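Supplementary Text 2. Reproducibility record for the structural model of the 160-residue chain.

All settings were left at their defaults, and a single model was retained for analysis rather than an ensemble. We include the record here because the model underlies the residue-level annotations in Supplementary Table 4.
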Amino acid sequence: MPAAREQVKFFYNWNNFYNKIYIMKHEFKIKVYPGDTDCYNVVWHGAYIKWLEAGRIELLEMMGIKFSKMEEMGILMPVTEINIRYKHFAKTYDELSIETSIQETGRTHLTFYQEIKNINTGELVLFAKIKGVTTSREGKLFREIPGYISEQLSQSCLHT
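Retained model, structure tokens:
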């Protein structure tokens, strides 16, 4: 998904990788098209899920975590929890900003915090907290986030 504007901010001040909170942000803009809406020209809830996923992938890839490399290594990152709070609706042709940050890294998971805002009105459309874990192709949960991911997260934080 092409980004009109991307923004990244990093914060790192912990000695241990796990259980710390980072402020890492990625932002991109989209325009709502008719295919994203229902018969009332209001954005269909499934479109938001698609945009939130794009935000998470773009943030991780910008930090050097490539999903194609994860697939080659047999690492998957399924979502295990989604909590979305809808605050206002978006309509056809609205311009939206999707901001994604990593809120928490745990031993076996990453927790993302995401906001979608209407650029023209400044209204918060929704905010979401989404948890992803790492598993093998067979669906077995890794006891720790694989080294490839944890190393890229640490490098991204240390080199800013």
